[in-house]
Amino acid sequence: MSEELARVTVRILDKEYQVACPDDERDALLESAGLLNRKMREIRESGKIVGLDRIAVLAALNLSHEILQNQHSVNEADQSLLGRLRMLNDRLALAGASGGQTH
């Protein structure tokens, strides 16, 4: 079963790009293009980087770094939550083993 592809025009740093994507992903594509456009404008307006290719690479590196930081934070939160769940599970098992009496 093939999905219908929509042709979407995105504008990044005053250039238009035609991108094909599944119709149900159109909004996500436009949101992603908007984020990329904002990042690239920030870099260009800083005046430190010249050239579209360099701006694009720096924006990609910045976004990749943010993604990795977020993944790391999520992994830490998951580990913390798992530790707390194990502790609660151990307490419940101990309470069950002692006949429901707590110390």
Characterise the protein shown here.
This protein has 103 residues and is an alpha+beta fold. The protein has a single domain, classed as Double Stranded RNA Binding Domain. The protein has 2 helices and 2 strands, in the order ββαα. It has helices spanning 26-46, 52-97, and strands spanning 5-12, 15-22. α1 crosses α2. It is elongated and about 70 Å long.
Topology (elements, then pairings):
Blueprint: E1 5-12, E2 15-22, H1 26-46, H2 52-97
Antiparallel strand pairs: 1-2
Helix pairs in contact: 1-2
Descriptors:
single chain, 2 strands, 65% helix, two-stranded antiparallel ribbon, 2 helices, Double Stranded RNA Binding Domain, alpha+beta
**Termini distance?**
61 Å
Low-confidence stretches: none
In the CATH hierarchy, what is the class? Answer: Alpha Beta
The radius of gyration over CA amounts to: 24 Å
Q: How would you sum up this structure in a few lines?
A:
The protein is an alpha+beta fold and 103 residues long. It contains 2 helices and 2 strands, in the order ββαα.
